[in-house]
Amino acid sequence: MNGFKDECGVMGVLGDNEASHLVYLGLYALQHRGQEACGIVTVDDDKQGKVLRSHKQFGLVSDGFNKDILSRLTGRLGVGHVRYSTTGGNLVQNIQPIVYQSSENGSIVLAHNGNLTNAETIRKELEASGSIFTSTSDTEVISHLIAKSKKATVKEKLISALQQVKGGYSLVVAAEETLYAVRDPYGLRPLVLGKKGNAWIVASESCALDLIDARFVREIKPGEFLILKEGQEEASEFPFEKKPEAFCSFEPIYFSRPDSTQNGSAVYIQRKRMGEILAKEYPTQADVVVAIPDSGVPMAIGYSQATGIPLELGLIRNHYVGRTFIEPSQAIRDFGVKLKLNAIEGVLKGKRVVVIDDSIVRGTTSTKIVRMLREAGAKEIHFRVGSPPITHSCFYGVDTPDRKKLLAAQITVDKIRDLLGADSLGYLSNAGLKEALSDKSQGYCMACFTGNYPEDICAPISKQPTDADGPGYFASK
Ligand code: AMP
Ligand code: SF4
After folding, report:
1. Which of 13-22, 70-79, 320-329, 429-438 is least confident?
2. Residue 224: CA count within 13 A, CB half-sphere
3. Does 253 reside within a domain?
4. Final residue in a domain of this structure, among 243, 258, 282
5. CA 8 from centre of chain
């Protein structure tokens, strides 16, 4: 069921002669959402009608795109995608945007962020009735459902396809002269609307709009089906069954960039609040606060400001290696922590240190960091985590591993502290997380901490650490 996991970023531009260049720059800003592969497809006109131009590659946006490639990608409509996947495989056919062409529907270009929870079931049904899939990506299910639809227009076909899928999707679709932007009814993954001059821009995060000097118009709403055409006002429909809002809380904790705005607040501010609340929940006698860069930094600033304990850069990150989580094999991941971070002895020696990270997933990073801090002479290490214990896997597009590999699903907070070798360990409570995210109008998915999935994925499984809707995730020597 959890066969396809995608962490992705999407970008769409309509109404600019330099659409491919703008998409390319936007993908640079969204690179943190996926480093395995990227692609841009543009829609242009020639004598025969619409023509698609495409470039897809493995690796970073900066690895392959160049001036020649971008100038070949002509057209005023373009869609781009950055992708990181584990299962589903690193096949070239899986690189998005995916393209579906037929004489009846013309050409349809899709870029998807999220994970469809019923993709495998639909795929089996479609294959049984003769559909031939060319990739293992769940997104291809959408194009096959479009192809099968008996509705009259591409717009209606797209809606009817999406009415059949479940799970999380933020989708950008280019069809003929139209750009569609759609969010699933829960609003699990982010998607924003912008304008640059007269051109429409759609992107996973607002930081992509900033980079191209586009104006932030608004966030696309959960369940919204947005139709964008050149020179026209946006047209909005809500064709899906209404669901309770469930924006992924892991976006502000870890995944999104701190300079993006989500639910009306900068992610940086939300992360800082997580640190402030962590300080309230677990006051600690210490000499110095140290962040595990990068996502731990705003939390550590919040913790330091709330307690008055000075913040120091005790761990320095080498920015020329990718995220360690990104390498799929455990052996490389182990090695990767040292490749990425180094401790400064002068800051840590003889000190009582509060060290802050955004999350503990498998526990590889935190174990190695505690060891690194000890080797640098830290006298006491108080590990603080800006999110509650992760006890359940994600089915909606964030690559958390199987429950068997989730440390907090396997052992108690006390045992985790022991394994880490920390003097104390405190995780943000569920209530603290809600308070940090506090936006009265916004519902959040917190299923990886609670097991309460927005959809009926599986019954919540009781977890090891006692669930306390107050500061209950604490252990000390
Ligand atoms: P681990 O060593 O598995 O406990 O990894 C925890 C570290 O990975 C934390 O420092 C997070 O910043 C980072 N992290 C958490 N979730 C993800 C994710 N879905 N993708 C990549 N990195 C992540
Ligand atoms: Fe986000 Fe966790 Fe919900 Fe997945 S299960 S969408 S990571 S909050």
Report:
1. 320-329
2. 21
3. no
4. 243
5. 6
Asked whether 328 lines ligand 1 (CB < 6 A), one says no
The two beta strands, 178-183 and 167-175, are antiparallel
Q: How confident is the model at residue 335 (pLDDT cuts 50, 70, 90)?
A: low
Please give the angle made by the CA atoms of 94, 99 and 103, to the nearest 5 degrees.
145
Predicted confidence at residue 333, as pLDDT, reads 56
pTM of the predicted protein model: 0.93
Q: Quick one: 216 and 299 in the same domain?
A: no
Residue 2 located in a structural domain: no
Q: Is the CB of 448 under 6 A from ligand 2?
A: yes
**Cα-to-centroid distance, 336 and ligand 1 (Å):** 12
Same structural domain, 303 and 226: no
End-to-end Cα separation, the chain, in angstroms: 40
207 catalytic? Reply is no
Q: Which residue's CA is minimally distant from atom 19 of ligand 1?
A: 399
Best residue among 315, 359, 427 to mutate for probing ligand 1's pocket (most ligand atoms within 8 Å of CB) is 359
SS3 435: helix
Residue 248 maps to a domain:
no
- What per-residue confidence (pLDDT) applies to 24? 98
Q: Which of 231, 242, 255 is nearest to 113 (CA)?
A: 255
* Lowest model confidence (mean pLDDT) among 9-18, 106-115, 453-462: 453-462
79 and 216, same domain (yes or no): yes
**More confident call, 380 vs 36:** 380
Pair 146, 161: CB distance under 8 Å: yes
Closest to 50 in 3D by CA, of 180, 229, 228, 176? 176
232 with 286, same domain: the answer is no
Q: CB of 351 within 8 A of CB of 287?
A: yes
Q: Are residues 215 and 280 in the same domain?
A: no
Q: Which residues contact 330 (CB under 8 A, 6 or more apart)?
A: 364
CATH number assigned to the domain comprising residue 372 = 3.40.50.2020
Are residues 287 and 217 both part of a single domain? no
Domain extent, residue 69, equals 9-243
- Confidence bin at 2 (pLDDT 50/70/90): very low
239-284 pLDDT per residue, tens:
999 999 999 999 999 999 999 999 889 999 999 999 999 999 999 9
pLDDT higher than threshold 50 for residue 321 = yes
Contact 38, 60 (CB under 8 A): yes
From 475, 453, 456, select the one nearest 464 (Cα to Cα).
475
3-state SS, residue 217: strand
Considering 243, 276, 306, which residue would you say is the last residue of a domain? Answer: 243
Q: Do 66 and 120 fall within a single domain? A: yes
